[in-house]
Design goal:
The structure is a single chain. The chain is elongated and about 60 Å long. It contains ten helices and eight strands. The chain has helices at about 20-30, 40-50, 65-80, 90-100, 110-120, 135-140, 155, 165-175, 185-195, 225; strands spanning about 5-10, 15, 105, 125-130, 150, 180-185, 200-205, 215. The protein starts with a strand and ends with a helix. The model has no long low-confidence stretch (mean pLDDT about 95). A six-stranded parallel beta sheet has the order 5-4-1-6-7-8, with helices on both faces. It folds into two domains: about 5-15 and about 105-225, HAD superfamily/HAD-like (Rossmann fold, 3-Layer(aba) Sandwich), CATH 3.40.50; about 20-105, Orthogonal Bundle (DNA polymerase, domain 1). With about 230 residues, the protein is an alpha/beta fold.
Length: about 230
């Protein structure tokens, strides 16, 4: 059956932190009296993120408080080796709110041209991502109005690669799995998660690394050609 609906992962696929998580954390920390290198923060953030298995650990239905507490613990661990704030609460409050705004994120150059192509060809589009509730404000702030639905793991209570989140996204678009495709930058979360429920999966790897038995694109501009 032909693909009618395309779902996109968010971070790493549609947009990325700008200029980097380490830079944003370092600039905000300096405003609150702590000087630390962006590279050191980036490394410590990666360690803390992977230790928690990313936002997959927020797989249950969450509240704003649960999400904020999760990020509070991660940020606290990132800065623990780097020094002490006079007022960590004030620093964290500013940092947390900052990442809900467009200024911390940048769309990849291939996003808008690809979305224009796909909508022009008649495809329906959705977002499907492991993210907290701030995803909705980020999508709006970035002007991503091409998407009919946005499915965030923290909002629906299940995270990729679990089949449950894919079923939720399919239900939101009233489309069977055989008519849908999911594209993202994770082989496990995006491609294997999608194919496990009968959807098609496309891996976005902008470095151009080949993967056996997997449809890989280097740019979202290539997606329409794959569908054709």
């Amino acid at each position: 059956m032909p693909v009618k609906v395309i779902f996109f992962d968010a971070g790493g696929t549609l947009f990325e932190p700008y200029p980097s998580v380490g830079d944003i954390y370092a600039r905000t920390a300096l405003k609150h009296g702590l000087r630390a290198g962006a590279d050191d923060i980036e490394r410590l953030f990666g360690d803390a993120w992977h230790a928690r298995n990313g936002l997959s650990s927020l797989a249950g239905a969450t509240t704003d408080k649960i999400e904020r507490d999760w990020w509070y613990g991660l940020v606290r661990d990132v800065f623990a080796p780097l020094g002490r704030f006079k007022d960590f609460e004030a620093f964290f409050a500013e940092l947390y709110d900052l990442f809900a705004r467009a200024e911390c994120w940048r769309l990849f150059d291939d996003v808008r041209p690809a979305l224009d192509q796909l909508r022009g060809a008649g495809y329906r589009l959705g977002i499907l991502s492991n993210w907290d509730h701030r995803l909705f404000s980020i999508v709006e702030a970035l002007g991503l109005r091409d998407f009919e639905t946005v499915t965030a793991s923290a909002a629906v209570g299940v995270a990729k690669p679990s089949p449950g989140i894919f079923h939720k996204a399919l239900e939101s678009m009233s489309v069977p799995a055989a008519d849908a495709l999911h594209v993202g930058d994770s082989l496990v979360d995006d491609v294997q998660g999608a194919t496990s429920v009968g959807m098609r999966g496309v891996l976005l790897d902008r470095r151009g690394k080949p993967y056996n038995g997997v449809t890989v694109i280097r740019s979202l501009r290539e997606l329409l050609g794959v569908l054709s």
